[in-house]
Amino acid sequence: MFEDYRFDTEAKTESISVRGLSHHQKGSYTVTDGPIFQTGCDLFSINYSDLGTELLKILKADGDTEIDQMIDVLEGYHPLLADDDFIEKMILHYHLDGRLGNDFAALTFLQQYATMLADGEITFSSDTFCSLFNSFTGWTLNQNWQVIEESGFEKVRNEPVPSAKELRAAILRILNREEPELPDTFPAVSRVVEFCTLTLYTILSKGYVLKRCDLCGKLFVPAGRKLAIYCERTCPKDSKRTCREYGNEKRWYERQQDDRVMKLYRTVYAAREARARRNPEVEKYRQSFEKFKVEAKKWREDYRAFRVSEEEIIHWLDIQRLTR
Ligand SMILES: [Zn+2]
After folding, report:
1. How many Å lie between the centroid of ligand 1 and the Cα of residue 304?
2. Are 108 and 195 in a shared domain?
3. Does 155 share its domain with 284?
4. Would you say residue 251 lies in a domain?
5. Mind listing the pLDDT tens digit for each residue in 142-188?
6. Residues 195 and 118 in one domain
7. Distance in Å, CA 252 to ligand 1 centroid
8. Which of 42, 113, 213, 309 has its CA at 20 to 30 Å from residue 193's CA atom?
9. What residue numbers bound the domain in which 307 lies?
10. Pick the residue with more confidence: 153 or 66?
11. Residue 215 within any structural domain of the chain
């Protein structure tokens, strides 16, 4: 399913190509040089509890249209979820034991884990993540990031709960295994849950931060400054701009309303101008004011473009206020 995907950790972009997504092999999904980890973050931003409720409603209703209806619902949440395998396994699980499939449970786990990380509730390492994932799903990931499944569908009903001893052994196996070297181009994985696992593992092991956008509420990995608070997605409030562009502009206008920097700027400017005007005979005041005017313009521009901080410009203005 995933034909090619690449996280370019230097350029901070991702490229993903996925074919044959939905029923009848029609669907495809392509990202070329998008913001890094955005597809995974989109998948982590889904409310799987709402999605699960919608899917169960369709499954409980009688009729032959359930697959088509499920594809519509899943595609609405994310195109990658409209994968044949994913959907068919969910239906199978449902008819066997009345719950959604293992892949769905694993995605829910990944989503909850990513949310807790983004909201700063937990700060786990990649190792802890692996052992948690394993103990939660009962799966093992092989060196190519593929899920090794524990049982076929016929066994699902009687799936044994692992004993504490088995669980402990599984966790130790993962903790003791050698940390695989992470390349920027990854071996093919075939399932959404494998893709999400690999994304989250890479974010953790490469030391990236996972954050929640202040505007759209979705998770993202900042490409530049770790302090970024807005993502690079199209802004829900303005389809022509990204959350970052919209957010920074909004903050700028809000800040201008009651901006102690600009108040101080105007006060200092007025004082220096008045001194030069009231003392036309003092050449020093006039020259000093002309010099201040040029510098002040530059400082104001740099401040507006976020090239200097509030503290820096206030410090400079305080000095200017005392300068004769
Ligand atoms: Zn956003």
Report:
1. 22
2. yes
3. no
4. no
5. 555 556 655 443 333 334 444 445 545 554 554 555 444 444 555 55
6. yes
7. 17
8. 213
9. 259-322
10. 66
11. yes
The whole-model pTM stands at: 0.66
Examine residue 197 and state whether it is found in any structural domain, yes or no: yes
Going from the Cα of 237 to the center of ligand 1, the distance in angstroms, rounded, reads: 10
Give residue 141 CA to ligand 1 midpoint distance, Å.
32
Q: Provide the 8-state DSSP code for 216.
A: T
Domains in the chain, number: 2
- Cα 162 to chain centroid distance, Å, stands at 33
Amino acid at 82: A
Of 100, 101, 99, 50, which Cα lies nearest the Cα of 78?
50
Q: From the CA of 140, how far away is ligand 1's center (Å)? A: 34
pLDDT over 90 for what percent of the chain?
24
Report if residue 162 sits inside a domain. yes
- Kindly tell me if the per-residue pLDDT of 243 is higher than 90: yes
Task: Report the separation in Å between the CA atom of 196 and the middle of ligand 1, taken as the mean of its atom positions.
Answer: 20
- 35 C-alpha to center of ligand 1: Å? 12
Are 175 and 281 found together in one domain?
no
Distances (CA, A) of 1 to 51, 64, 101, 201, 321: 22, 26, 19, 20, 66
> How far is the centre of ligand 1, averaged over its atoms, from the C-alpha of 100 (Å)?
30
- Rounded mean pLDDT of 244-271? 82
Question: What is the 192 CA–ligand 1 centroid distance (Å)?
Answer: 23
29 φ, ψ (degrees, to nearest 5) = -145, 125
